[in-house]
Specification:
SBP, D-Maltodextrin-Binding Protein, domain 2, signal, 4-stranded mixed beta sheet, 13 strands
């Protein structure tokens, strides 16, 4: 797990569970619902009485507690005894040591598709059984299935994901500026930003001290503007960072980064602000900015660190479409893989691919599922329900975080690679060519070393 993923895991622990103060459509109260859940014979799960199944993952705290309720349902359906083992941040080291010791977990939850690729290449993973791939074909878009594939073999089931294409805004600042609608295009976002600035509130709070956040800004613009196919090529370094499509995206990003008056604290302030502070600035009294970009996990910061209420004081809209492209939907998430070929591992992977498992998790709060068979009424409030709808609606156009798929030396290390290069671009947004040259040099070096 790179530094970026660790930061998101720490932030995402409660997400909408803490913010889920709205009414629930189905009366979920924090206990796993069994209404409508299939029995073992309908799910074709085997009788596993007396068998132990071990699951490893990075989750701790409330995140782990909620997942244990999913495992409890699996145990009830099969008679198995399932245990969850925390891996710590470095999943590769944990699993590698377990394999060398001859005792790998049955199933592991990995924080990035790059780790899945690494494990599959090493021969550590077991391909999914036909029953599981059938479940995936029914319940998941092709984009999510592709992310769990290595050399034409399906290994992964994405269980928990994020929607990282969102802007959260202070409704009081919005109303004070006389704004009534939210923008759906980049041009409208810039126009609304100017209106907010003219009203006395800087529009954007940017936590650029955390390099991963700056990469997410770029990735959303690039995905919408250049399209998914070009996004995939840049992600794999099949095109260079000096490509004209990157020039265009950085120039577009510079329309905000090149306007210190549109950022809370100006350029220097943005570069000195970390992610949690960027959220606090928007929902402080009085606010220091009106808008903050990032995923649904921002709701946790709002709820825990401010007096604002999600859904009233704090509302959300999707990242706008850029230059006539589709509105981007960028994601990250955790993928389940089997490290053993036993009956217990196969059954659990089958269960995790089903809507029943995801619905139990969704009902706890703090969880988004890519499983399109999950009923939206299972989400605990309207805010997260709409975020989930946006995620599913994207279908095959959804893309996984680009920097999380790159070698860590380029896409996931503080003070170097893409993180630092885009921070430097924020400091000097007029030098698009210089930024591209440095990005390409760092990418080429990292990808060559990674092989």
């Amino acid at each position: 797990m790179n530094g970026r993923a660790a930061a998101l895991t720490a932030v995402a622990v409660l997400v909408m569970g803490a913010a889920g103060c709205g009414s629930s459509d189905n009366g979920a109260s924090g206990t796993p619902a069994t209404t409508g859940a299939k029995d073992a014979s309908t799910l074709n799960l085997p009788d596993l009485h007396g068998q132990e199944v071990e699951v490893a993952g990075v989750w701790t705290g409330a995140e782990q507690k909620n997942f244990l309720k999913v495992l409890a349902r699996f145990d009830k359906l099969t008679g198995a005894k399932t245990t969850f083992v925390p891996t710590g941040d470095n999943v590769s080291t944990f699993v590698g040591s377990k394999i060398q010791g001859g005792s790998p977990p049955d199933v592991a939850l990995l924080p990035q598709p790059g780790v899945l690729q690494q494990f599959a290449k090493a021969g550590w993973l077991k391909p999914l059984q036909p029953a599981v791939t059938k479940e995936l074909a029914q319940n998941y878009s092709q984009a999510w299935r592709d992310l769990g594939t290595y050399k034409d073999n399906q290994y992964g089931v994405f269980f928990k994901v994020t929607n990282k294409s969102l802007f959260w805004y202070n409704t009081a600042a919005w109303e004070q500026a006389g704004l009534t609608d939210t923008p759906t295009t980049w041009e409208q976002l810039l126009k609304d930003g100017q209106t907010l600035s003219d009203s006395g509130t800087p529009p954007f709070s940017i936590g650029a001290a955390d390099g991963w956040l700056v990469t997410d800004w770029f990735e959303n613009i690039y995905l919408s503007q250049a399209g998914p196919a070009m996004y995939d090529k840049l992600t794999k370094h099949q095109i260079k960072w000096t490509d004209p499509s990157v020039t265009k995206a950085l120039t577009t990003l510079g329309q905000i980064y090149g306007r210190p008056d549109l950022m809370a604290g100006g350029t220097r302030g943005a570069l000195q602000t970390d992610f949690p502070t960027s959220v606090d600035q928007v929902f402080a009294k009085p606010p220091k900015a009106a808008l903050v970009y990032e995923g649904e996990f921002i709701a946790t910061n709002i709820t825990q660190e401010t007096t604002a209420k999600v859904g009233t004081d704090a509302k959300v809209f999707p990242f706008p479409a850029v230059d006539g492209g589709k509105a981007p939907v960028l994601s990250s998430g955790d993928v389940a893989v089997a490290l053993k070929d036993g009956e217990g591992a196969r059954a659990l992977m089958r269960f995790l691919a089903s809507p029943e498992a995801a619905e139990i998790a969704v009902q706890q709060g703090g969880f988004l599922s890519p499983n399109k068979a999950v009923g939206f009424s299972n989400y605990r409030d309207a805010t997260v329900r709409n975020i989930a709808k946006n995620l599913i609606k994207a279908g095959d156009d959804i893309r996984f975080d680009m920097s999380d798929q790159a070698p860590a030396a380029f896409g996931g290390t503080k003070g170097q690679g893409e993180w630092k290069d885009l921070q430097d671009f924020l400091a000097k947004p007029s030098d698009v060519a210089g930024a591209q040259k440095q990005l390409e040099a760092d990418a080429a070096k990292a990808f060559a070393k990674a092989g």
